[in-house]
Amino acid sequence: MTTAQEERRTPERRPEQPPATAGRRRVLGSPGRALGAAATAVREAPRRPMVLATALALVSLLAYATVRHFVGTSMVDMIVYRAEGAAVAHGQDLYALRVTEWNLPATYPPFAAMLFVPTTWFGIGVLRVAITAGNIALLGLLAALSFKLVGWPGRQLRPVGVVLVAGLGVWLEPVFTTLRYGQINLALACLILWDLTRPDGRRSKGIAIGIAAGIKLTPGLFAVYLLITGRVRAAFTAGLTFLATFALGAAVLPDATYGFWTKYLYDSTRVGKTVIVDNQSVRGAVARLLHAENPGLTATLLGAAVAVAGLAVAAWAHRSAPWAPRAEAWGVCAAAVTAVLISPISWTHHWVWCVPMLVLLAAEAAHERSRPAAVRRMRWRPILGATVLGFLSFAMWIVPHKGDLDEHLPALHQLPASVYPVIGVCFLAVAALRVRARRRAAGEPLVRLPQQRPAEGESQKAPAAR
């Protein structure tokens, strides 16, 4: 059996268990069945690891609640969302509102504001508890979807992993900040990853990505990823769904829709300052490096280069599936990292994609010793450890950044102030190196051109050593 086959192999099924495909059909049938399947998976998980994971998760969440109490949680973004919903419900000017002591405006499309209307039915205190609990549940769901994407660990251990991620993942800075601000990043990531882990043959594939793009524009890059990897129908489904969200917003809020798409979308001052350490995009890193609020053409060209390179790596990884396990997982994570890197402003909490990234790196580390020497040049455990430390470091908040200090950071502070862009670019480089190593080990060309065909009598299968 080849190494790639060994890494794809799932634990042996007991005879009485139904086929995996049938289980998936039942799970996707209704939310009730999905919850039932989740409960069954928890019951079938190994008892001792499950008990230990649950105890560790509860201790971690209790510690998180204590820290949260003392550091304070303004949940300002939740308050903005609620104000947007109230503006829609009461027929007020959506983009004229200013709330909280920071005078924060609405920055999402009108379709998103329409979805926030139900938040007006509850008081702030109830929303704080509900959104915090909901985000922790979404963190667990994101972990489950990440495990499904990566195909690791085995099915019996996945409930244990979900509990551990839901309990310990709150300490990852992007997740911690998402919870602190009451953000919707985890919900968007779950929508996108749910869509991408569905079979390509499903006619509705792409709808969730289109909805996510209708709420916040950056998920639209995943439609591009679907398109360049040959899943044209899913890409067009995502695009048409996005247009449907636009049409719905225009029908319900015509003035707000006109204002957003002709004026407010292009006013970056409504979102925030580019140069501050909160902004962990390529443009933010360049602005701090140049000590300029507006980094101009330099940042634009560098962002464009990262976009092209990142999407190329994502497509290359996806198309290397015959020779590399977890190829789609690398493609999806590369696309996600690219989306966050090239956005003009990517707040630290936008990097909740660290969860599938870390799951993927953990899977590579778990299989490190089983690989042949030809593809064992990278040491995945140090790479995983460094990435975990980066997302646990809170490095950008440690450097002096009050007032206008963000714009005048010394050279020694540039790396910690832009730690996520550095991690993101390194991740794309590692993804490219992994694909290159796998293709070379399989004796395949680095890029198969359309006119290339196997010679007559030549086997189209990859060699055994992978």
Automatic annotation (TrEMBL):
Top-level EC class as recorded in UniProt: transferase
EC number: 2.4.1.-
Protein's UniProt keywords contain Nucleotide-binding: no
Compartments where located: Cell membrane
GO molecular function, one term: glycosyltransferase activity
Pfam family name, one: GT87
Signal sequence, renumbered to the chain: none
This protein's UniProt keywords: Cell membrane, Glycosyltransferase, Membrane, Transferase, Transmembrane, Transmembrane helix
Bilayer-spanning residue ranges: 50-71, 121-145, 157-172, 208-228, 234-253, 297-317, 383-399, 411-433
Family annotation (InterPro entries): GT87
Membrane topology type: Multi-pass membrane protein
Compositional bias ranges of the Basic and acidic residues kind: 1-16
Region of interest: Disordered: 1-27
Family membership: Belongs to the glycosyltransferase 87 family.
Protein name listed in UniProt: Alpha-1,2-mannosyltransferase
Species name: Kitasatospora paracochleata
